[in-house]
Amino acid sequence: MVDYYGLPREGEKSWPGRAAASILPSTEKGNAVEGALLADLSSDMGSDFDSRRFVPFVVVHEFEALLFSDCSAFARSIGQPALESKFREIRDGFQTPEEINDSPITAPSKRVEQLVPGYDKILAGTFAVLEIGMLKIRAACPHFSSWLEKLESLAG
Predict the structure, then answer these.
(1) What domain count does the chain have?
(2) Which residues contact 58 (CB under 8 A, 6 or more apart)?
(3) Strand, helix or coil at 2?
(4) Which of 22, 43, 58 is the last residue of a domain?
(5) Residue 144: enclosing H or E segment and its boundaries?
(6) Which residues contact 93 (CB under 8 A, 6 or more apart)?
(7) Interval 75-129: pLDDT, tens
(8) CA of 114: how far to CAs of 7, 110, 134, 141, 150, in Å?
(9) Residue 48 carries which DSSP code?
(10) What is the pTM assigned to this prediction?
């Protein structure tokens, strides 16, 4: 699981598919980079590569976008219940939380940090996921849910 937001798209350290994905709609970016990454690894490793053992997930913008799946639970989980309406205002600007935009100023984490000075991404993000629950995140975030379905299919 990696954030699309920070993946290099040019130069020696660029990620497969990242440059091409930059012109795609946000709903297609993650799949494009994941597919390019799988193709790149398959090409490099040849017959040693088993795509069932590597299931990439590129969260289209940032992990924090997933937390907008339930704005009330998100606000409660970080001890800021009064921010529910602000979170909901952000969320309502997009078809899904996964589409919350990725500019350096309006990335999901930047939006949260503007409202919550000192926001601790790791600790608060963990509490938020626990409060929101995977069912709500999956229901609101189809790309994330699709990745989990792939992982679940491997288990059974």
Answers:
(1) 2
(2) 2, 3, 4, 7, 29, 30, 33, 34, 37
(3) strand
(4) 58
(5) helix 142-155
(6) 100
(7) 999 999 999 999 999 999 999 999 998 677 888 999 999 999 999 989 999 999 9
(8) 23, 6, 26, 23, 35
(9) G
(10) 0.87
